[in-house]
Amino acid sequence: MAEPRRRLLPHLASLLLKYSYIISMVCYAAGFVTVLLLPALAKSTYISENALMPGSANPVFGAREAADAIRMADEVQSLVLKHADGYIAVQEWAVKHMSALSADCYLQPFSPPEKPLSSMRFYSSPQHTGRLSQNGTMEGIPGVNIVGIVRAPQAEGNEAVVLVTPFRVEGMLSTGDRLALGFGMALFELWGNSNWLAKDVIWVLADSRYSAYTAVAAWLQEYHEPRFDLPKDWGFSDPSTQAWLYAGKKLDGETLLDFKRAGTIAAGLVLYVTSGDGGVADCIKVSAEGPNGQMPNLDLINVVNSLAVWRQGLHMRVDTFADMQESASLNYLGQFLEKIGQLAGKVRADWGFVLTASMYVEGLATLFASVKNQALGLPTGAHGAFRNYQIDAVSLEMMAGGDFGTVNEQIDLLTKFGRLIEGVMRSVNNLLEKFHQSFFLYLLSAPNKFISVGVYMIPLGLLLLTLPLGAAVLCSQSVKTAVASDSLNQTESDSTDLFSATPGKPSTEVVKAGEREPDNLVTAKTSVGSWQRAVVVVSVVQLWASLTAIFPPFVSQLVDSIMMNFSASSKAPPVMKFFTIPSLKMFMWATMAIVSLLTMVSFLPTPGKGDWIAVKALLLGVATIGLGVMSQIDFAVSLVGALVLVPMSLCACPLTNIWGKSADEHKGSKSIQFRLFLLLGTMVNIIGSPPVLLASAMYFIGDSSSWQASLSKFWEWTELLWCWGSALYPYILVVHLPCSILCIYILLS
Amino acid sequence: MQSVKTGAGFMSTKMVTLWGGLLLSVAIRFLLSAMGSASLLGRRLEVVSPVTSLTRLAEGQWLKQLGLSPYAGSVYHGSPLLLSLLGPFIGNRRDILLIIESERSDLCSFWVFVAADLIGALLLRSMGESLESAHIHHLSLLGLTLEQIPTSDGKAKSQGSGRWGTGNTAALFYLLNPFTIAVCIGGSTSPIENMLTILALYGAIAGIVPLAGFGWAMATHVGMYPAILFIPIACLLANGPDGPPSKLYKSPELVQAVHDRDGKCSSEIGNFQQQPAMHVIKSSNTNVTLSSGAKWLVVLKLIMWSAISWLCILGLCNFSLHEHASLHDMWSETYRFILTVEDLSPNLGVFWYFFTEVFNFFRPFFIMVFHSNIVFMVMPLTIRLHHRPVFLAFTLTAISSMLKSYPSVGDAALYLGLMCLCIHQLSGLQYFYLLLNGYFFTAIIGPVMYNLWIWRGTGNANFYFAMNLVYATLQTVLIVESSSTIIRYDRNLKKQSVKRSRTST
């Protein structure tokens, strides 16, 4: 028989499949190394929107304004101390001053946040504004935001910038809140008297008795998607409150409760003042992570950074892992990289990079903190609420170097910050379009260093590349084994190949490789059979995982209603000896999950020999899709997930292959080395399996005092992830959990 | 569901699986609907198109109740008959986007759509059964058995549902397909449209000319695109269900071989083939169509019945519109709206992106070009695949679903259901794994990209349209691959039958 003509593409494909183990290992290792190298690949930030022109005008905020701010902070504090209800005192104070400026001002009551897990809504609508109960009343005390608007003298009022100062009254205002309010008022007065504004300025005094996020989210929702089902009287039962709210009734029927708007919001700044943590210099801490790792446009951070560092001489910080910077092994790695950089510089001048060990470690710690914040999917502050409406916003936390000791120190500090905020405001004021020039998808490795999407996708791409490759290998393997086993007992095979002109070969690469082989009906049947069983197994596990994922609200409501019944009869149920309510919920959830899993598994078709190959191929497909989609929703989750899931799913193989007899392998390739590899893979699998991960999670986030406390902690985390709509939750439950269960299925098959 | 094969309780397990599947599908729909996913799905552009939206239908009904034309304001673009049929059920349904709690009226319309899906599935099932028996019949004529295991054809016929249960598979697949479920509970009229299309094909397979004509006319009236299905329906009526190319029976060597074989081993073949095979071949050609004259007669009857149905439909439409609107309004708001692509909001198709960019004076030309893509496909496909009308119907449905101006996943549900009818011939489909993963991938990543574009603002229209292109590519691959699989299957059939007849002589 003549040698069949070799075609290039199939040949390359078969080469790829032949060395797939090595290729995947190299890809995974390269991906892992690239993750560690990211700080070295970071670029310095630059301002790409020309219209911003930071620092082009001299700020007029000076010591006099700062002194005003402190005077007003003291004023509001004394009012709060005098008044029975501190919030009303702040409202009266703010309304008085804003009216004096002839600025628009109003109060916006909002409902307290909904109880977590009280509805099935996940991703569907904002979770942080409560809904009315059946009889139209609000549960709990409503919060009240105070909002003032300075209308820009030169503009039509179709654009606005928002300044937010959250405050909380607990008998009195804290020093930070007091200063923030006074500071905000000083800025507001400054802008109220300025003639350069081209955008309206909205100042929101966010009532953060629930949380700053709730208040800002409620205001933003009312601003963008007004609700018509809100109660009329807001349940302000206190007559004095009622009187005050309706006191400002003007001639044209306007009350203080009338909502006013000021056009599209271009940017948001959330201001905090804190006493600092004993750092050496005054510094400003920027937090920018919104829900699910969404970041504001990098230009906004750039403007703050350039003004703070170059103009005001402030130190700028972003969130970082402080204790990672002392890690010895990372320092060694940094020194190693430093050497490499120097070496490369010697070989060719433009190859070298200057990266000292300390810079590298610092960058890595900041990067990991950035990845952590994005992966958790919880916004790091009230600025996250803006992101839901495509508004770029950051939180600026102003930290004094020392304590707020003397008035002079305070004045000095507020002058610096005031000039900074004014500068930022002037820059944003210059904007002609939305923020769009710079990056939205990036990770920060320092306040002035970023890693853009083009760079950080490389490690993920390398990690994910291995999965389809593995699937292709398995597909070709399954077809080949089927052919091999059947060609033995098929002597006259060519007379029956009616129904399998080309057999059910499920992969592109395989088709090319197998096109010339004499196939037959039974081959197709067996391979189709194993594929069918595999599809059933995978879809059952996936279905189970999705059901488990939507289960917490049911559990929560069930337990709550039971508790309600018991509290009606004023007798604690017997289980409460062992559980607190959260731990009971967690326990029920876990039990339900495990029991339903076992029932579902018992209904699965009996696996045939070699079925695991098809299961694993499907598993790899599912994992690729899951990780790929997740990378679009929240990159950080996908990256962290890929680091764990990729080796797990690639290394999954039946335990019998390690020490069992090599019956189905006629190649005799069961060397010690091979078995060792398999053993290593199994170890990886066991490490990545849910019990081990849970145990390690318990170690990190759990409470080591008792297992009930740990369960409670887990439940609290679940609630948190659920009600913030974090992508981490569906990742863990819909991607990672079924994949690891399938890995275990493969191990045991 | 297919893993249960032979055994004593063959029939009963089949039935249990079928009815269990039906119940399960209804339960899933009910559960999802009760959980209020209608409000979530009702605003997904993948599920609801401007032509099929129930929200728009409610608006039309409201206008009608006010004594205005339902087409006023260019909101409603469906048939007046659908308005009369569904209007009373959803009359109280205000804006589904605001009302989250499902109301009783929602539930009524929900049952209408579930019923449509169930009817569609049952029709698919009986279509599958007749296709299967035709398939077995043709194979036995060619002297081929289904598998190596010798089974008498008589038994296979008496079992009716046959070995693979194509009908059951198709019905269950149609009902449990996530696309079908999403469309059913998501507030779209696609289930009714799909049901009508299946009804027309069923009428054609069962040989009931009036039903076929009525189904075709209704489907065309509601959805316009089923118009091109006239050809497969006519082929079905004239030539009978899918079979090997008719020239296979005329090839001289085969005829000779069969003729020889009859003399020697007629007892080898089962009860059904006691009669001489030549006669069988003749009868197979005759018992359906008799002669070319009769063929034309059937087609003429079909045309006549379609025309009658059309007249009735137009009369009913006129009656239902009263004096609020004329039939002319109906044409311009339904067919013209579909043909001129007036609504450029994003959808699953490829039109909107292009026509937002195109200059106005090029518009008519490109509209013509885009639509002619569908029309140009009809002729060559008919010539090549006229002996397999159901598969032809699948191909045409898939092509129109890919190239129509307002597609939704409901169209994919229909053509996937039809494809399942040919599952046996398509068992050698290449790239199956790739296609399966591709459909999963686009089903998940499409909404994600839309979210990135519309809600997060970090992406843009290109992100979403790229996914549309991927989806269109997948559909193309599916159509091309399945067509070539069918053609290869026919070629193999010929080769095998010739070989078999040679060996037996």
From TrEMBL, chain A:
Transmembrane annotation, as ranges: 21-42, 453-475, 534-555, 586-605, 612-629, 635-655, 676-701, 728-748
One Pfam family of this chain: Gaa1
Organism: Sphagnum jensenii
Alphabetical UniProt keywords: Membrane, Transmembrane, Transmembrane helix
Signal peptide: none
Name of the protein in question: Glycosylphosphatidylinositol anchor attachment 1 protein
TrEMBL record, chain B:
Keyword Protease: no
InterPro entries registered for this protein in UniProt: PIG-U
Regions that span the bilayer: 171-189, 196-217, 302-321, 361-383, 436-455, 461-480
Entry-linked Pfam families: PIG-U
UniProtKB keywords: Endoplasmic reticulum, GPI-anchor biosynthesis, Membrane, Transmembrane, Transmembrane helix
Domain of life, per lineage: Eukaryota
Record's bilayer topology term: Multi-pass membrane protein
Biological or metabolic pathway of the protein: Glycolipid biosynthesis; glycosylphosphatidylinositol-anchor biosynthesis
Localization annotation: Endoplasmic reticulum membrane
Main location: endoplasmic reticulum
Family of the protein in this entry: Belongs to the PIGU family.
Protein name (Swiss-Prot/TrEMBL): GPI transamidase subunit PIG-U
